[in-house]
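Running log. JK asked me to keep both predictions on one page so they can be read side by side. First protein, sequence followed by its C-alpha cells:
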Amino acid sequence: MQTYPDTLSLIGHTPLVRLKGPSEASGGEIYGKCEFANPGASVKDRAALFIVEDAEARGVLEPGGTIVEGTAGNTGIGIALVANAKGYKTIIVMPDTQSKEKMDTLRALGAELVLVPAAPFSSPCHFVHTSRRIAEETPGAVWANQFDNIANRRAHIVGTAEEIWEQMEGRIDGFTCAVGTGGTLAGVGMGLKAHDERVSIALSDPHGAALYDYYAHGELKSEGSSVAEGIGQGRITANLEGAPIDTQFRISDQEGWDWVKRLLDEEGLCLGLSSGINVAGAVRLARELGPGSRVATILCDTGFRYLSSLHDPEWRESKGLR
C-alpha cells in the first residue's frame, strides 16, 4: 500500500484500463485513462494544480488571495479543491447551461458561483471575459485563464503523458481526445511525441466545434451542435498552439452516447458524454492504424456529474439521443 504526504498529491497517478468493448469493436487495444479517479473527479484537477502553483511561483498569488476562473464546471471544481487545500478563496463564473450537479458541487466546495447566460466568445458577456473582468476588479485576485495559460498543457506534458507512456510500457501507437482548452490533447501529444514521434495524435471533435475543419482544411468552421459539456472550441488557444495533431475525427453526440451506454451496461463504467466522444474517437483511430494497434484516450470525468442531464431518459429524449 502506498501513502501520500498530502491531499494535493492525490491529483494524477490515475489508473489506465483496457476497455473490452471498444477494443473488440476496433480490432485494436483501447485504453482509458481514469481521470474520474482524481479528487475532483475529473482530468481538470491536473490543470488546476499547475495553474495555481504557477501563479504562486510567479508571485502573483499571495496568501489569502482569490482565484477567479471561467469554466464549464470541472476546472472550477478542481481549482476550488486546490484553493481550499492552500487557503485561497475561489470565484467561479460558469454558463447557466451546465449541469445542476456541477453547480451544486461548486457551492458545496465553498466557491462563489457566478452564473451567466451562454454567449459566443466574441461577446463581452462570455463566461471567460466575465471572469477576467471580475479578477481585475477584485483586490488580491488572480485570473486562472485556463484557455491561454500554458501551465495547463504543461500539467499534461510532464504528468499525463509520462504516466501513459510508463503504463503502456512505451508500446503506444495512438492517442486521442476532444478539446476544450486544448491543454490535454496538446500536452499529452507533445509529451508522447518526445518519446516517439511515430505516436499518432488525433483530435476527436464534437459537432458545433470548429477545430475539425481547421486541422482538416485550415479553416475555423463549425457545423451542427453538441450537448457535450466542457468540450468544443472555436479558436486556437495558446494551449493549442503548436499541438502535434496528425489526424482528426468529427464525432456525433449519438456516437458518443452509444459508447457511454455500452461502457455502463457492459463494463460498469459510468461516464459523461465527453468521455464517450473520446472513446468513439479512439475506436476510429485504432481502425485507421490497423489491427493490433494500441490507442489511449481520456475518461474525463464521472457520469454521476450528469444525472440530471445525460443520464436522465427524459433529458436525452428532449435532445434526440436514443
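And the second, directly underneath as requested:
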Amino acid sequence: MRALILLAHPEPRSFNAHLAAQAAEQLRHDHSQVDVVDLYAEGFDPLEAAWHHPRRLQPERFDAQREQRHSAELEQLPADVRRHLHLLRVADLVILQFPLWWFAAPAILKGWLDRVLVYGPMYNSRQRHEHGVMQGKRALLSVTTGSSARACAVDGREGDTRLLLWPLMYSLRYVGFEVMEPCVVHGVRSGLAAERVQAHDEALVAATLSYRERLTHWRQWPIVPFNDSDDFEDGVVLRADAIAHSPFIRHRDAG
C-alpha cells in the first residue's frame, strides 16, 4: 500500500505538520510506503496561468482547461504538476492535511486542485464521479479549526464544518476518489492563557493518538455518500426518488 500526504500549512512546527508526520509514521509502521508533500516548503505555485504552458494551443486567449489538456497531450505539463500527478496515480490513500482558514482550505491547497487535477489526465466528460480516474483509491481530509467543536456544529456560530468541507470532498469525488469522512480536530489555538495551556495540549495529544489509531484501520473508515450518475435525470437534475446526501445537492422544496 502506498499513501500520499499533502500538507498545506506554512509553519513546519505547526500542529498540522505534526499530524502529517504522525500519520506518515503510523502508516510506515503498518508497512505502507508514504510520500509527504509540503506545499509551502517546496514553494508550490498555486496560480494556474499562461506561463505554465509555453506551447499554447490558443496564444491569443488563455483557456485553462484547453491548455492543460494540450500540454498533457504534448507531455509538457510543468515538472511540479507531473510529479504530483505521478504521486496521485501510485497512491492508494491520499490525505490532505490543512487548517480551516476563513471557512475554507488555504489558498495554496485550492491552487493545488486548480493545477494538479488536470483536465484530460485527471478527468473528462466520460471519466468523472464514480467512473473517475481515481476510482478504487481513497482520500481523507484531516483538518484543524481554531474554534471549538460546539461552535463548529450544525447550530454553532461558526457553521457546520463538515458542510464547509463538502465542496472539497466533492472535488475529490469528481475525479473518482472514495472520500472518507473527514477527521477534524477542533480548538487548535495559540496564545492561550497559562491556566488553559495544559488542558489544550492534553487534548491535542489525545486527538493525535486517536488519529493514529484510526489510521491503522483506514480501510474500515466510513465513506462519505454521494449521488451516482444514475440519480440524475439527463445527468443534470436529481431524480425525485433519489436520496439527497447533502444540502448542496437536494430536492427542491414542494412550494
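Observation for JK regarding the second prediction: The CA atoms of residues 1 and 32 lie 5 Å apart.
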